[in-house]
Amino acid sequence: MTGREFFTARTVSEVLSGFRPARRTAVETVPLAEALHRVPAAATLSPAPLPGFAKSTVDGFAVRAADTYGASEGLPSYLDLVGAVRMGRAPDVTVPAGGCVAMPTGGVLPAGADAVVMVEYTAETMPGTVEVTRPVAPGAGLVRADEDVAAGGELVPGGRPLRAPDLGLLAAAGVVEVAVHARPRVVVLSTGDEVVPPSTPELRAGQVRDATASALAGLVRDAGGEPVLAGIVPDDAGALGTALKEALRDADLVVVSAGSSVGARDETAGAVAALGEIWCHGIALKPGKPTLLAHCGGVPLIGLPGNPLSALVVFRLVGVPLVWRLAGCERPPPEPSTRARLSRDLPSMTGRVDIVQVTVADGVATPVFGPSALLSVLTRADGCLVVPEAATGLDAGAEADVMLYR
Amino acid sequence: MTGREFFTARTVSEVLSGFRPARRTAVETVPLAEALHRVPAAATLSPAPLPGFAKSTVDGFAVRAADTYGASEGLPSYLDLVGAVRMGRAPDVTVPAGGCVAMPTGGVLPAGADAVVMVEYTAETMPGTVEVTRPVAPGAGLVRADEDVAAGGELVPGGRPLRAPDLGLLAAAGVVEVAVHARPRVVVLSTGDEVVPPSTPELRAGQVRDATASALAGLVRDAGGEPVLAGIVPDDAGALGTALKEALRDADLVVVSAGSSVGARDETAGAVAALGEIWCHGIALKPGKPTLLAHCGGVPLIGLPGNPLSALVVFRLVGVPLVWRLAGCERPPPEPSTRARLSRDLPSMTGRVDIVQVTVADGVATPVFGPSALLSVLTRADGCLVVPEAATGLDAGAEADVMLYR
Question: What is the value of ipTM here, to two decimals?
């Protein structure tokens, strides 16, 4: 029944570089207001140059730069004020040699002008004449018509989740819909005879409410995915096989929150092996060793350890990048982190990644120890510290990167 | 009309410590599946101890620890196997002196036992007898009935946005609804004769599409708020006053994306002064100086600079913590950041915070310079670097914290 002996265990780096399904979600068009953190399927190009017209960046006067050369407080240039530009309107004047036009910030540069002098360096001592007390170079005080983006230039790249400022640039270019990858559907299947729904008011001895599924749903959302909680299946090979088949039908990723006993884990492995190819069974990771990764007819599957804490550590490390990748994003957005000094030695084994939950205060990271059966370890921690594969441990006082939870 | 001279300019630290409206959003109850990153109004206490029963954390045998003292590979303890615990069920046996009961991980510890021996340190060479080859201490291989959380103990604190693992612990405790602060309604009012909606297909000379509102909406969502884009008001004192009154009626925060010219800014200040108390007009911040902060009958108001880049810098620095605070969260969740070496000198002025957009590659931060009229500076940057008030600048090669965009 088990066949566990035949499956390979892998290191974390082997998993991250090697378990890379080709599947990508379909592309759909969404309005800008719903596009935040979605992953564009391709680069969006600007239909026209931006801002689209040479534009003043200061309040002042549009001039021919040459007319200001040599100007100083002691010996100003005197220019004829021939008109004013109004916001949002095309100029109805041109700037002749020896002339100038009043400009608001953001106004259209009139023909004839090649610079804008800030109002601070001018004075209007006589009506109709402007004194300029500083010279300006051509191009000063303005942006060119295509200085933000050229026609056909890239507004936002494909494959990178859209950030708030990206939405601004798209809006500026009149792009009000974006073609993005659909949110990956992550079907979470909980298993275990002891597991009951969170809404169960009273527990019988030995029963536990399904904690992992709700927490996984949060991690899936943070990774831009759509969690689908498919319910709880008893530790029964037939029921598990049926539920898995059902889950795989409409999923981009299936996550099995496995039973915690060896028997339950073997049952999961057996049911998965019948539906696809097991890629690894066991990761050199603590906590999180009894993790199963498989390809089931094009759909990746993660079998998580039974302990909620271990399950969440594994999903953060292995599942989150996978969800982004399914949506066409190869480099997930950065996570909050900080450098902190260790409050104590952290022993570890070479060849294994150790994940240690820590609190962080005043630049010091203090491990929150506790059995991985405890969820409160995770809710008390400010983040986690990764002891890398190559290390035999970290010394007290050593600086380390802590991934902070948000 | 202007009265700008009467208003105080403030430093960034004065703004962050001093502009702290007392307003908080109402409390509403949401299901767990919608509670991610919402801010609980108070601590949630556990109605019962968790896990609720003494529970095995290993596959093995429940024993009386004393029966294993002195056991070794050479001289095992021999214990009578008196039964087995099934997952999710109350044990139907007790462990007598000299006896043991087979246990799955997660099973209920039977009466009489005080420890669980891992199956790895046992052998069943004769049916009905278990050899134990290592001693265990009382409490080994199990968690106590209240080891995760005691009855009445805190599951999650109030005031801290809920993280994915928090949802797991709440589910484990049977808490399927949480009382959280409503998402702050942030009404964004765009102003300017030159500003037209993003959906405008063709621009006339001098017109610009409203970029700031869409980008602000993204920042508001990232801060847990609900953006309400109230449209575009022309540079007209009457129209602005009417629109502001309307915006204030149903907002927790009003953001005016102001016109970019001095005249437009003065008009905003005048309209705001008529409706409330201006707290400051001008922040020692670059870009972002012409920022206005006001209290309007209990509703805070931010008047942003006209340039989209400046507006977004100010909103990130001042607006984002305010949105969190309105939802009852005093310490916003951590943002992604990294340490990087500067590619070049960054001059700055003491007493002013400078925000420099940078790209980051191989640990080196390279400034992305460009007029603040350009939005593409923000979309090209990986993050921004804060040159603090006290500094006169940063030297090339110096290490600095970069706030990364996500």
Answer: 0.95
